[in-house]
Amino acid sequence: MSTVIFHDPDVQIPLGAAESLENFTAWARSDHFPLRGRIDYIDGDIEIDMNAEELADHGGPKTHIAVEITLRTVELDLGEVYISDARLKSVPGNLSAEPDILVVTYESIRNGDVKLHPPSNNRPGKFTLVEGPVALVVEIVSDSSVFKDKEKLRTAYFEAGVAEYWLVDAREEALQFDLLTRDPESSQYVERQPDENGFLRSDVLDAAFRLERSLNPAGYNRYRLIRREDG
């Protein structure tokens, strides 16, 4: 049964939007879709979170991780990095979501595995929707997204063919950084184990990473994604 999960009730959902991925996609690409907040369709459920982004433990790590990932993709001439507002659609994953960070490779676009869809007005050279098995997705856990990020999206991103799923939880004293790799044989993600120095190997970015947290001069949390290139 389709459900709608509200973290804020101030959204009007058209009839039938939760009945299928295509119905939700039509709503998401219409002029009636909310311009703020995060609204995801995950296997028949619509999850709505209109809460403002918490800066210290959500916006902070997202920004620093996105910067390092972007620098690496540019070095490799690998693809493009999109933050927050890039919508990912997957028919096999029965999914339409806006990940915190999304990496699309040029190769996947050239070979047709990933398609870039234009906006509803079909303006040439513009696109608002990514469809297909992207290379890497990052989610930063917030208080309202714990089950969604750690359970529902973990399953949905695997079914969508996402090669790597990075999951960060910076809400508690112990900083959690999991790098999950797709294992077709076991039909699930497998957590990459850190080496003796705490680095996690990313096959997509051909490097190993460690996420650190310290206090900035103002006394608030500061994050740094340290990269080590192997070989």
Automatic annotation (TrEMBL):
User: Coiled-coil stretches, from where to where?
Assistant: none
Q: Name one Pfam family in it.
A: Uma2
Putative restriction endonuclease domain location is 24-195
According to the record, the segments passing through the membrane are: none
Descriptive protein name? Putative restriction endonuclease domain-containing protein
Q: What is the lineage of its organism?
A: Bacteria, Pseudomonadati, Planctomycetota, Planctomycetia, Planctomycetales
